[in-house]
Amino acid sequence: AAAGQEGRLYLADYQILDGAINGIYLNYQKYAYAPLALFAIPKNSDPNRLLRPIAIQCGQTPGADYPIITPNSGKYAWLFAKTIVHIADGNFHEAVSHLARTHLFVGVFVIATHRQLSPSHPLSLLLRPHFEGTLAINNAAQEVLIAPGGGVDILLSSTIDNSRILAVRGLQSYSFNEAMLPNQLKQRGVDDPELLPVYPYRDDALLIWNAIHQWVSDYLSLYYPTDKDIQNDTALQAWAAEAKADNGGRVPDFGENGGIQTLDYLVDAATLIIFTASAQHAAVNFPQKDLMSYAPAFPLAGYVSASINGEVSEQDYLNLLPPLEQAQQQFNLLTLLGSIYYNQLGEYPKSHFANPKVQILLQKFQSRLQQIEITINQRNLHRPTYEYLLPSKIPQSINI
């Protein structure tokens, strides 16, 4: 109660998974879970104090089926409950954070850009390098990865149709304007480093976000001296209209007053698109190899019910984990997906920008990325190592 009053509690609620249909692969019955996990920050002034899990409820309804489990509930009860949370997190991560909110989110703007903006349009020139390979990998995923008998069907908890529905729900609930990184962090209550001192994703992502924002602002200001120039650009307005249209991209909460009215909004919008295609995708894709490929640490499905009745034994915990061949499939697929680095943020094709004024601005952006690389490497000397947002490890586009 004291921690709650002092703003030291954080809740991970996987309610979006409640009611998911359990999948079956070959003769394996899989289970989907919708737990709640409570975390706390210790009360002291240590700048390196870490978030700690303190209580888990393995389903949405409290009571006998889903009692609250704590570190005092017994070794295997606590390990079982933490694994349930990892499984839920893995399913949310792959369908929502990864597929829906990077691949599918950016895909809308790839199509709108190619349909509505000429190759020489200033915004088109800025965005197209960040779209390289995206439609190709999205199409390959549709045909192989999120198809019946594909990796998602084999490994994740739910049926393939249910996983697809989860991705749709994840995208439809993703407000464009709230997805701006500073807004997203504030909305989730994780923006204050005094309250949550160790959050490497937040701290490194803000460096990248601000660098992209400055580059985009400098670039677009060359072509749009006033807001009136934005409003009078018919191609730009058609681009925005397609992205939000019911028979187009259906991007929730996109634009201002039916279109794009100001340079400030266009800068924010282009920043979000570029950030998502580069840094955000890097942050959700590459941990698949390092953090998620080893099934006992991060299973993608459970193989027993989450209902805990009585004492949890070692065998109960082992029964929760994937069978060997499933674990091998998980290792192979996630190691592959988390190992491919093609192109690098800030490295545009030679002579891509013909305007000499842009070259000066681009060099400024590239220099800032080099400084961010140094800053993150220095930070990693004094915190849990986090390298996913090193600029040298951020591809320019979603291409894997």
What does this structure look like?
The two termini are 45 Å apart. The protein has 15 helices and six strands. Helix 8 packs antiparallel against helix 11 (263-285) and helix 8 (200-223) runs antiparallel to helix 15. It is mostly helical. The protein has a four-stranded antiparallel β-sheet with strand order 1-4-5-6, covered by helices on one side. It has a two-stranded antiparallel ribbon with strand order 2-3. It is globular, with a radius of gyration of 22 Å. The protein has helices spanning 2-5, 75-116, 122-127, 134-145, 151-155, 160-172, 181-187, 200-223, 227-231, 234-244, 263-285, 287-290, 314-320, 324-337, 356-379, and strands spanning 9-13, 24-25, 28-29, 36-40, 52-57, 68-69.
